[in-house]
Amino acid sequence: MLKIGLTGGIGCGKTTVSDLFANLGVPVIDADIIARRLLLPGQETLIHIKARFPEVFNSDLLDKDKLRALVFSQPEEKAALEQIIHPRVFIAIDKEISELEAPYCILSVPLLLESNMAHKVDRVLVIDCPVEQQKKRVMKRDGHSESLISSIIATQINREQRLLKADDIIDNSNSRSELAEQVKNLHNLYVNQSKLKAKSA
Question: Is 83 contained in some domain?
């Protein structure tokens, strides 16, 4: 199966693009959804986080706002959190892939490049838009302050580096119809490439 790693900065439209692929019948595995599942009460991952970051818990409940503020203001704490979460997320992704039957799948992984996991996919698809557009979208969507959004963006690989590492790029700075057309074109490309991969296997 051809594996497409979908990534991009915060607010670039990864979920919108994932939904467009899903509407074409393509399986989408979302690392954020898996991570949220791993943070449910009783999960082993949550137990490890509480042991490392007890200050962001109210009794047994994780205060996600406190955790977010902590890790985006202290790089070493962010690295420690990622060491707990990322390996478990990728184990879960591998399990989900093993259960799929499709020409190709989309792996939506926001930190695919930052976590040096691009080798786990066949192609890297970057969803792109200008940084100022990212900020406006996230402020409207989440209500975060511009300073918090800027600090999140600063922890991610910069736009230029991300684009250099891309095999494919979707420009999400214009209309929904233009976005859908780009997705359809890539869908056709990936179906054809999955056939070539199957022949060479």
Answer: yes
Tell me the DSSP string of 55-79: GGEETTEE-HHHHHHHHTT-HHHHH
Contact between residue 33 and residue 152 where contact means Cβ atoms under 8 Å apart: no
Same domain, 131 and 182: yes
- Please state the pTM of the whole predicted model: 0.87
Residue whose tokens read 């259960």 = 99
pLDDT digits (tens, 9 = 90+) for 170-180: 999 999 999 99
In a domain? residue 196: yes
Whether residue 139 contacts residue 146, with contact meaning beta carbons closer than 8 Å, is answered with yes
Q: Determine the Cα–Cα distance for residues 118 and 143; give it in Å rounded to an integer.
A: 31
State in Å, rounded, how far the first CA of the chain is from the last one. Answer: 10
pLDDT tens, residue by residue, 26-55: 999 999 999 999 988 889 999 999 999 999
CA torsion, points 122, 133, 32, 163, in degrees to nearest 10? Answer: 20
Domain limits for position 71:
34-99
Say how far apart CA 107 and CA 31 lie, in whole Å: 7
What is the edge-to-edge ordering of all strands in the sheet holding 28-30? 28-30, 104-108, 2-7, 123-128, 168-171
DSSP percent split of the chain into helix, strand, coil, nearest 5: 60, 15, 25
